[in-house]
Model the fold of this input.
Amino acid sequence: MTYIDWRAGVGLFRISADGGRPGELIARGQLSDMIAAALDFDAHDQPGLFIQHDLGTKKRLSFRELSELSTRADFPVLI
Done:
């Protein structure tokens, strides 16, 4: 299993309505927290969400990708 830094700083974004601009920032925080926040959104809004690493990379995790990460055995679960 590939190592994931669940504490990495990321931003949770909504895809812009026109698709040409960068997404609208919803929140910043740790990867695990932003995945959990995205999963709490209404199912209708979820496909328009993505996560981007805070270090300025252009790599985005789509909602499908971040929801797959939430099913990993090492995903932090708070009780």
Notes: The beta strands are 9-14, 24-30, 49-53, 60-62. The first strand starts at residue 9 and ends at 14. The first helix runs from residue 31 to 39. The chain has two helices and four strands.
